[in-house]
Amino acid sequence: MAQVVPAEHELRRVIGDGESIPDREVEGLGEADLLELHRSLVLLRTYDERSLVYHRQGRIGTYAIFWNHEAMQAGAVHALDDEDWIFPSYRESAIGLLRGMPASTVLSWWRGHPAGWWNPADYNVASICVPIATHVPHAAGLAWGKKLRGESACALVFFGDGATSEGSFHEGANFAAVMDAPLVLLCNNNQWAISTPLEAQTRAETLADKAVGYGMPGVRVDGADVLAVYEATREAVARARTGEGPTFVEAVTYRAAPHATADDPRAYIDLERVEEERKRECVGRYEAYLERLGVLEPEHAEAVRSEARELMRRGIAQAEAEPPPDSELLFAHAFVDPPASFGSDLDELRRILGDG
Amino acid sequence: MAELSIVEAINDAFHVELERDESVLVIGEDVGRAGGVFRATAGLRERFGPDRCVDTPLAEAGILGSAVGLCMAGFRPICEMQYDAFSYPCLDQLITHVGRYRWRTGGKMAFPLVVRMPYGGGVKAPELHDDSPETYYVHTPGVKVAIPSTPADAKGLLAAAIRDPDPVVVLEPKLHYRTLRGEVPEGEHVVPLGRARLVREGSDLTIVAYGSMVPVAEAAADELDASVEVLDVRTLKPLDEEALLASAAKTGRVVIVQEAPRTCGYAAELAAILAEKAILDLHGPVLRVTGYDVPYPYWQIEDAYMPSVERVADAARRLLEF
Question: Which chain A residues have a beta carbon less than 8 Å from that of B68?
């Protein structure tokens, strides 16, 4: 049975500020792990910054920016094994890169091209969930299924603060708790649901408090501290694997970029606060930490950045080289066993398009 | 062959299919300890254990949403929605994910799940225990829909749905759950999806129906002084279009019966197909006998809502005299 415990209210931190707040170290994380985390952060940051440019150049469609969310994404994923499943929302669209998915796949997805399809079982990364919170029950079901099969894999689902207002969040969290499903509920509390601030979303003092109602632990971490997110997720994964059920991790940050390329936050956001957040953004904070530890050489950091930029150059080139999708793809995959009408629909479409 | 009621035939299908394939799970509200409020899943928990027939929290979107995840883990979940109108919260999952997920993976991942529910009125039940929601399901791309009208088809279509690689919704005529009995093949019995059943042959007029309206169509056919063909659609999607068009070509007169409200109902789809593909075979307009475009009423006036034998026979006479 999961224990009902009060949620942790203090934000957990590992990375200090180089002045009055001291750095901690995460037990068991060696230099190679620290640099691997850095590589992931840089990869995600580069992906995000380049995608914004590609959007402005008209090379990808509307894009959901995740600038300064890289720490919670990389920190959480590094606490998982490859057998564990990740259920991303659109804010974590590039999470597959951390599992070896080609950048061209994710870029194709944002280009609205079927080359953006992937088999979730190839990476143990579910499809990007566009509607809010409806993937939480999927993650609960997958985790429950793994437990039924006697496998040790668990699942981690990313969702935002606004998602906690949705019925699907409630149903998924409750299902996971009742089934003792090995699930980590990772809430990206960036305090904004497009233009709606957290105080218009809930009367709960913290989102982690909601965990108590489901009979699971709730933890709050600094969402821009990659090591704090890693450590909290690792503990949640350990609970999940020993049959203790789900954990709610609230990663607190502040959305310092627009919701998406179609959004202009100047109408509603606190610009001074944004400026402040941008100064303490998560990649720079982690690099400063590594430098204080003496782990990160400037040449190494530059090599990692250059590798990430090259990966994006190849990714966009590959995505743009995809031929226009054949109209057959409209019909090809809706059913394993399609109705007869699909054949005549396709024949008619090809006749009109003159390509058959 | 055993003579079973519809609900007994469904229960039989469950026993056979759970025995046959251990990836098949039954999940839903009250399906385990109670064996389902209509006893459709009776005995499964005892026979196959609480991990194969699972009492879930009371959450229809959670049931169908977790079934999506169970498919990803290699299971074939069968979700029970306790009543037709209680299934509406699951439409969120059905529309946003169940019907789309395979396409979204480029056909790489299948979602062989089943949603089944008792449907329809005439049972003197409280509000929202009487709906005919088939159109919502049929209208959702990526989902198949079957509605049996006999015990043998209830077993065979459920077995087909369970074995099908795509998501299938099965609506069961609760009015006839216990009142309609018939011969049901023992052991494995599969009625392929996409094939209509010719209930009786005739040459003057065709009455097309499905589910609880099939007995109404048959009774109307008995009353008419004409040679009436009755066609049971059985699978709404994929539709057995050949059987529909063959019957229309033969009789030239078609009356379609559905219990659901009229506008944009399944009868409208059948009528549109006849208009597109059979217009030169028709001797008169395609007529619909349906529920009215009103909320399903309280039970003291539900008889006035339900398509009756008299209304079907009246439509048929008008068409025969056209």
Answer: 137-138, 141
